Amino acid sequence: MRPLRALLIAxxxxxxxxxxxxxxxxxLRRAGADVHCLDLAVQAIAPDQVRAADLIGLHLxxxxxxxxxxxxxxxxxxxxxAAHLCAFGLYAPLNEAYLRELGVQTVLGxxxxxxxxxxxxxxxxxxxxxxxxxxxxxxRLRFLVPxxxxxxxxxGYAHLHEPTGAxxxxxxxxxxxxxxxxxxxxxxxxxxxxxxxIVPVEVVMADVAQQVDAGATHITxxxxxxxxxxxxxxxxxxxxxxxxxxxxxxxxxKVEHLLARRDLLPLLRATGCAFITSAFEALDDxxxxxxxxxxxxxxxxxxxxxxxxxxxxLNPTFVAFTPWTSHVGYRRFLAGIVALGLVDNVAPIQxxxxxxxxxxxxxxAHPDVQAIMGPFDRVGxxxxxxxxxxxxxxxxxxxxxxxxxxxxxGAGRRETxxxxxxxxxxxxxxxxxxxxxxxxxxxxxxxxxxxWYC
Length: 454
Hints:
Elements (H helix, E strand, L loop, with lengths): L4 E6 L8 H12 L3 E6 L7 H6 L2 E5 L3 H17 L4 E5 L2 H4 L1 H7 L3 E5 L2 H12 L11 E2 L21 E3 L5 E7 L2 E3 L9 H5 L3 E3 L2 H13 L4 E4 L8 H14 L4 E5 L2 H6 L4 H6 L2 E9 L3 H7 L5 H13 L4 E5 L8 H13 L27 H4 L19 H19 L4 H13 L1 H4 L16 E2 L6
C-alpha cells in the first residue's frame, strides 16, 4: 500500500523560510507520509502536486497568510476535490467557521504538529478523518528537529542589511510558542490563553545548524516573546554563541521583560544579538493601558536608554492608528520618536499601521470599539472600523500611500520620516514647524529586507 501523500502549503511568512512547514513535515514523515512542501511566497502553485495529494495542509500563522490561503482554497478544490483539506496555525482556529465554509475539513491551532500527524495516520488507514482532534491544543510536545529538505533555498528569502552595507543570509527558527501575557489586541492570546511552550535547546540548535550549513549567517528567533522563559533563553543564547560564534541573531521581546531582566542585555549583545524587536505599540499611556501592554511611556524611555548603554539596537513596532488616535496625539507620537532618538530604528511602515480587529480580538468588548465597528468582513477577515473623526482615517490612508511610494523608490528612513512629519502637520509645516532636535540616536541598526509585520 502506498504511503499517504501530504502537501504542505505556506502563502506568506514575512520573508522567512517556513518553520511552519519544516516542523510538521518532520512529524508527518515520522508518521509514514510522503511529504511535499510549497511556499507560494517564492514558488508558483504546482498543479501536479496538488492533484496527487491525499492531504493538503495550509499553514496560517498570520492575517495576511490567512487571506491569501482563503483566496487559494477554491483553486485547490478545483484541482483536487477529493483531498482532505486541513488548516493549521495561529489564525486557523480564529477563523474556523469561515474556513469550514470554504471547504476546510480539519482545523488545528496551538501545538498543531501532533494533531496533523494523527490526522495523517487516520487518513492513511481509513479509520476516519479524526473529528475528535482538538481545535486548539497546548499539550507539551516532544518536539522534532524540523525537516527543511525540499524547501526553497535561503537566498530566496529576506536578508539582513548591516550598517556597513553588507548582507547576511537569514535563517528562522522558534525556541518557544505562545505567550504568558494577555495584550488585548494580540492574536496569540485567544489561542494560548496565557500559556507558552518551550522547544528544547538541543532541538533549536539542530535546526539552526542545518540552516547555517545551508549558508545562513544570521538567525531570527520568531518566538512571540523570547524572554517568556528567561532561564531557557539564557541557556539557549549561551549554547548558540558557543556553537555558532560567527552567526548573529535577533529576537522579539516585551518591554516589561527587557526591563525586568535588564541584566540579560549585555549577555544578549555578547552572544551575537544584532537587534531586538519590541512592540512599543504607542507613545501614549492611555492607549497602552487600553491595549493592556504592561508598560508605560516612561518604561519605553528607560528601555531605550538601557539598550543604548548596552549597544543593543532596538527595532520598535507600533500600532500608530487606533480609535483613540487624534491629530495632536499622532503629532506627539512623531515628536516622541525624535525625542527618543529612534528615527533610524523605526521601519516606515510602522508609522501607518492601523489597528486590526480579527475574530476573537480582546478589544471587541471595549465600548469605544463597539461604537465604531461594522459587521465582520469575511474577505478581510476582520471587523472594519471607522475613526470618530474621519480626518484621522484620511490621514492614515495618505501616510500609508506615502510610505509605499517611498519604499518602492528606496528612500531612506530619515527622508521618509521628514515627509511623514510634513504630511501630519499640514499647514503648520508650511508655516515653519520643523521636527524637534533629535536625541542622541541609537547605534546604527541592522534591518531585515522584509519590514512588513502583520
